[in-house]
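Chapter summary example.
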Amino acid sequence: MFKEKFKYYKNLDYSVNEPDLIDVDKINDVSEFVERKYLVNHEFDCEFLSGLGLNSNVFEWKCYNFIKKPGLVIIRNPFTKKGEKTWIQRCVASYTRKPNILNIDAHNMLKTDEDWWTTVNKTGDILLKNKLRWATLGYHHNWNTKIYSESARSEFPSELAELSRTIIKLLNFPDEFVAEAAIINFYHLSSTLCGHTDHSEINISAPLLSISFGLSAIFLIGGSTLDKNAFGILLKTGDIVIMSGESRLSFHGIPKVLPLLNDNDLDDSYDWKPFKNFIQDTRININVRQVNN
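The structure predicted for these 293 residues follows.
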């Protein structure tokens, strides 16, 4: 049952040996639950993929189909280290700027001529830093009505649209993916995301694309109702999740964000250091959707 499993993981004293948690780094290429999927790149050249921050050798991507959850795909190792840093910087410093909408807008914590990241670094305001939970791009999802509206829409970032389209194309989906809305979630160690389904989009046949950076987390996915069984997957920085087909309308959530276990990033350059400090206690999730048919 989803709620019971969510509570179990939320209260988990995390161990890397947790037997009930799926880590694709610890499975064989073929198992009764997961199968390895190899990508064949027929359309995009190496320079184009590198420009998006992606590992240009798609054969090195670790891509897995979940046999018991059709349509669910996990990709590990798709980004270069430089690419990860570029996307982290965009999420933190660029996608939090106007006209994008932030959860803190309702609290009037910023002046009209201020942007969040610049103000946080200039003032050292920890409260302002920790209050940020999400930013919406493109179609701005209305959390009360659960609908998208043409009157609440801004230009979608072209580089994120290109990244999303490319990933879906590499997975050989038959239809072109048009990125029209995104939510950038910022999780702290105490953060959770309760079980829900994403059904506000007109086109629910288009896949959902989710990219994680920073701290690891447990991703819990169940079935079409909360009384279906659920299982947990360990998501690490750079991981991509695709929900399509049967999994597209499955209940899912984040019961636990995990502390940084080790830090192998030796880059303490002036430009990168503020972002490195930020992601040492934060998980960033980019969730991209196609809204219309």
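To summarize the output: The chain has one domain: 2-289.
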